[in-house]
Amino acid sequence: MQDVSIIYHYFPDLTEKQKQQFAALFDLYKDWNEKINVISRKDIENLYINHVLHSLGIAKVMAFKPGARVLDVGTGGGFPGIPLAILFPETSFHLVDSIGKKITVVNGVAGSLGLTNVHGEQIRAEQIKAEYDFIVSRAVTRIKEFYQWVHRKTRKQSTHTLDNGILYLKGGDLDEELAELKKLHQIYDLSDYFKEEFFETKKVVFVPL
Predict the structure, then answer these.
(1) Helix (H) or strand (E) holding 164
(2) Residue 184 predicted with pLDDT over 80
């Protein structure tokens, strides 16, 4: 399955509105990508597995509660933030990137989908003053460096099943990076949730803050 049906397969409880929003993503990204390149041209056909479902791997680890605040650092064209914002419409998502053109895409896609819970902003992570329940990202840098950018940006009080912290999508052998981090962490293999070959080495790394 390379179309939106794969999302419906792994997330069978979607509302009609959510189904329509996920279905609209392909044409929206194809259109935006011709103007501003946020996904490699070869990869756009793999949008639903390599980008949307990959982003939703975080949702298999953590179901965000209504009223929660989530920061997506280095969001690029809106991953993982936009798929998560569709899935959790009552959670607030702040999507940031240092490259303004990418945020233009984020806000364009969010606007077309009618996502009122997404705020895209061109800003560096280090400049953000607000506090969040969780900070999500997709392999923007080494985990230790990412930790240094964001470790003071979580709310003190945790209300979810996991403590407030980082949920980081990363692939490959992470032993060296996690040894370098020297912080308590937990690894979730996405191959436990999704059977596609793409997910064989993909993980969510949780680091409580």
Answers:
(1) none
(2) yes
